[in-house]
Design goal:
The complex is a heterodimer of chains A (497) and B (227).
Chain A (H helix, E strand, L loop, with lengths): L10 H4 L3 E5 L8 H12 L4 E5 L5 E2 L2 E2 L13 E4 L6 H11 L3 E4 L10 H16 L2 E3 L6 E3 L4 E3 L11 E5 L4 H13 L3 E6 L8 H10 L5 E6 L5 H12 L4 E5 L13 H5 L2 H11 L3 E3 L2 H13 L8 E5 L2 H13 L9 H7 L8 E2 L3 E2 L12 H8 L5 E5 L4 H9 L5 H26 L3 E4 L7 H8 L4 E2 L2 H34 L1
Parallel strand pairs in A: 1-2, 1-5, 5-6, 6-7, 10-11, 10-12, 12-13, 13-14, 15-17, 15-18, 18-19, 19-20
Antiparallel strand pairs in A: 3-4, 8-9, 8-11, 16-17
Chain B lengths: L2 H8 L3 E2 L1 H10 L7 E4 L2 H11 L3 E6 L13 E4 L2 H14 L6 E6 L5 E10 L3 E8 L4 H4 L2 E5 L4 H9 L18 H17 L3 E11 L5 E3 L2 E5 L5
Antiparallel strand pairs in B: 1-11, 2-5, 3-4, 3-5, 6-7, 6-9, 7-8, 9-10, 9-11
The chains are: A alpha/beta (497), B alpha+beta (227).
Chain lengths: 497, 227
Amino acid sequence: MLSTISDSPLYKIARPESIAFFGASNKFSAMGSSILNSILTDGYENRIFPVHPKEKRVFDLEAYAHVRDLPEVPDLAYIVLPTKIVAETLKACGEKGIRRAVIVTAGFNEVGGEGAARQAEIKAIAREYGIRFTGPNCIGVVNSHIKLNATFLPSQKRTGFIGMASQSGSFITQMFDYLGTRFGQGFSTGFSLGNEADIDIADCIRYLGACPDTRAIALYIESIRRGPAFIEAARDVSLIKPIVAFYVGGSETGKKACLSHTGSLAGPDRLYDGVFKQSGIIRARSVEELFDFCYALGSCPLPAGNRAVIQTHSGGPGAAAADACGRAGIDLPALSPTTLEKLGAYVPHTASVNNPVDLTYTKNPLDFFHAIPKILLEDEGADSMLVYFLATASMIHRALAGLNLTKAEIDAQVEKIVDDQCSSVAALMTSHNKPFLGFSFLTRENPFVAALQDKGVPVLPSPERAARALGALVEYKRLREKLVRSFEKSAKLKASS
Amino acid sequence: MDPIKTAVDKGWTSLSEYASKQVLKVWDIPVTREILVQTAGEAAAAAEKIGYPVALKPCAHDLMHKSELSCIELGLSGPEAVNSAYDRIRETIKSPLEGVLVQEMIAGNRELVAGLSRDPQFGACVMLGFGGVMTEVIADTVFRAAPFDAVEALDMIRDLKYRAMLDAFRGQAPADLETLCGILTSLGRLGLERPEIAEIDINPLIIAPDGAVTAVDALMILEGGPR
């Protein structure tokens, strides 16, 4: 375990106070220019020093002809140069005293042939000068909490709690819009790893484990290079923070022929499955699951067990959630007599007070956001709660339209009602210390969904996805408890020997 | 004498069933009681000592998948049966043998497979699955990278799809999970401490009606073999 986050080689890569930037010019179409443009557009507030042999200014920043001319030793060198001048540039950075780099440039191990020699050369230079770096052939780094987006696409400028390390080129960048429009979030910190010539995914796990802005860690994995280091890092970090991995089965055809049954059954997919389990990592089966799980795990406390109560006012979504719960290993216990008695005052005679609790409608629509979920959360037979949300601002508009108010007054009222109700749900959630997951077919364009999410109540886009995310919470709790047992056992063994 | 070192010195690429089990035994993996014999007379004496019924198998380091050779004699219940089975094996297998293996018969219809393989990134990896001759068809297998402890081994067992077969099952006692966990962790440590081993198969690993777990057949492939 890192004793402090600043011990990580990624510390100054994720939180640089100054950057020397190589490869940006006033030619806007160049990759380097795109990245520098993103850094400036997103509002990075620290010092940037473009280095360019000819340009005097780049994007309104003073440019320097050579790294040795810089007025200070920057924390980080960002290198987006033609392949053949990367090595000499890295060397010049080393001479200047720069000790961290992100090498975006491609054309190394991934192209084979001379690329491998070029990669060996930059590794040797890095070793000589004590430089730690990500890449080559990566897309960069993002840290929403210091407004650093050093990738080629603009971000949604939102902070968030999902930290990510990705072995797929520009995957992180492509997910900016996805996280923003679905969950109203950005990455707390994200690393694109490329060829992992130096810093690799195990280092990222340790960094993100120590990162105070990160509550859940997403991994996109193609191939793990240092197996034992990966397992050790993940086991340490899983004790304090959930890790979710998306791994697309490695090629079964690439492995060597084996003589034993064991060898012939040892495909990479099955092996990675086991490695994730022993590392305390939850495996996602799709990109959606990767972020759904991280979003739910970062939003909710851990459940005491696998029993949930479902609240809905429509049969279909409730039944779909119940069905999905069955497949996700979530039990739906009957409500306790106390709960039934308390609910009596709030539910119409048409309602079904089984689990799912299908309210059909509520006498007072706002009870759906407070009184009823409060009663259900208090039921000791349930460890968690799933709630279907179908509230539209237009319903409130209509209700208010009859009351002789101006449009501005109505709008203000609607906004206040949405805000109050969503705050009430969020307060319920924090005061009961049980996972609370919403699901809705509405999007963030609906003010209720956006307000719930922005106040920390996770809302997922379908009952099945909410149920599976709840399954991931139960699984993380189980895996974590297993790791705790294992660490306790080995501590006892050490103490007795 | 270390059977692995002996085999490596001789340039063999695998160990015989007998030698493989000698290694497993040292690592506290329960194996069938068995005696390697060179004559029909020795076979009958060995069978007497082990107790009927017994099985007879040809034993050599280069006999890898014996069931495919139809040369395994099972359920032999007296000295005459042992005698004639011995002769049949000697007639069928013309290649040199280390001997003929006289082995106790383990009752039980719950068959597992356990083993070790090596992965370029994760090193020694241990497998557990449901098996016998149906291993590849059922394909209910789980892996862990070594080293791991008994807590993890138990989780590995839990990951099996058909794990209910390890509980009390059709009048049979639940499997001895403590021993099974020990087998899995031992295989992992064996993989870490003996880099000469490329792969291990324990197939079948039979769960007896009383829950006892025994390695009934085993195969060890050495590094540098014809892979």
